[in-house]
Amino acid sequence: MTKPPDWEETLSDLARRRQHARGMGGPERLDKHRGKGKLDARARIDLLLDPGTFREIGTLVGGEVASDALIVGSGSINGSPVMLGAEDFTTMAGSIGPGGNSKRFRIAELALRDKTPLIMLLEGAGFRPGGGHYGRAPTDLLAQAQCSGKVPTVAAVLGPSAGHGALVAPVCDFRIMSQQGAIFTAGPPVVKESTGEDISKEDLGGPVTSLPSGVIHNVADDDEAVIADIRRYLSYFPPSAWSYPPSLPASEAGADTQPRATPELLDIVSRDNRRVYDMRAVLDVVFDRPDWFEVQPQYGKAIICALAHLGGHPVAVVANQPNVLAGSIDANAADKAAHFIMVADSFHLPLIFFADNPGMLPGSRSERSGVLRAGARMFAAQTAATTVKLHVTLRKAYGFGSMVMSLLGFDSQSATFAYPGATMGAMSAAALGRATHAGEDVTAKLRDAELQASFRSAESMGFDELIDPRETRDALLASLLRGLSARQAAAEPVSRTVILP
């Protein structure tokens, strides 16, 4: 009669299997990976999460294939629970087997069930050849799509990411890449075989390609910098759409969060509409600290999208950039802003618009890029937003360029402000004069009317108030606090099927 195993024998077997899984691809492959200046998958998880909080699930999935090349589980970031997965490139190039696919689906399912953010650290070759991905089986992208707009989703590309695994990134709210990252539908060998094109992975999908294309939002130098940015990005967001963004705790709320005048804006924002300035300098002055977090800074540069604190409260900022295209809104800028607005609205971040633009970018090249379609998408996103909305026109906002920046009345804003002398209308006086072939006397009258436009608009309640630039921060802060006071019921998700990539 065979003797039944005792606990010591059983637990020894469990420990052996765990040790194998935690060994990943083995010492040689791990050394090679680290020799490239990259962290391994488990080191990335340890750095991302608060110390000692990682709880792995599916450790033994894959059997002899350590964790089936994907490490998943739960932990905390800044004290708040998250679900996460990290592809292990040292094990079968981080490829996706049936077990890994199940784990990917499971953490997305749990993120939505438990109302926690979902983070994916990507470096993998896509579906594993001969991996048994056939027949009726769940795929992680279905569960991830259901997370959209319900829990914050973040993807980090920390090495080559191809095929199905690469699709994880564009479905996420925020996508960031290290300098060693690359993302593509298929890698260079497949491209060579399919099209004859001989190209490096860096040129195919590295930062030089994925940032201008808009597939990736931000880039950081290395794994450590990427992970620091993920922690920072999530600090502005609530755990889910069923809660509100967290204000800074009392221990961190100091003099920076208090009301104060902004006289610096008189020097930054010229009264001459033709003189450019850097809108970033305005944001540095208005918000609590100049360390606000910009999303997608290298794409659609005519609009700045940023996360900041005002009075200790997280806000989302959409601002025209006068030193790029004179602030004209091109298709890329509008597309960027539309996605950013939908993400902010989904998680109840107040939106603050700083308008200073001559309208949508005109010209044949702009039209061929679909500027009207992109502008319409941005307008639809902002006018559908149900969160607190605040608007300031600094110098000018013309035509559709004013509508996409939440200038029009009856657009559910909590407050609208403008500086005296701000100009607005269908087009500038100069453009109108040229379009109508007006004489010098008529053009002069149009220009005079333009200069008086802000006062005439104020007389007709076109804005809630014309403000001195020195009052900008205090006017926005008071209106923000009033808008936040409306949160007298539990937060609920916005009625939206999915955030469009």
Automatic annotation (TrEMBL):
Gene3D superfamilies: 2-enoyl-CoA Hydratase, Chain A, domain 1 (3.90.226.10). Residues 7-249 form the CoA carboxyltransferase N-terminal domain. Residues 265-496 form the CoA carboxyltransferase C-terminal domain. GO terms for molecular function: propionyl-CoA carboxylase activity; transferase activity. Pfam families: Carboxyl_trans. Keywords: Transferase. Residues 18-37 are annotated as: Disordered. The keyword Cell inner membrane does not apply. PANTHER family: PROPIONYL-COA CARBOXYLASE BETA CHAIN, PROPIONYL-COA CARBOXYLASE BETA CHAIN, MITOCHONDRIAL. This is Acetyl-CoA carboxylase, carboxyltransferase component. It comes from Mycobacterium rhizamassiliense.
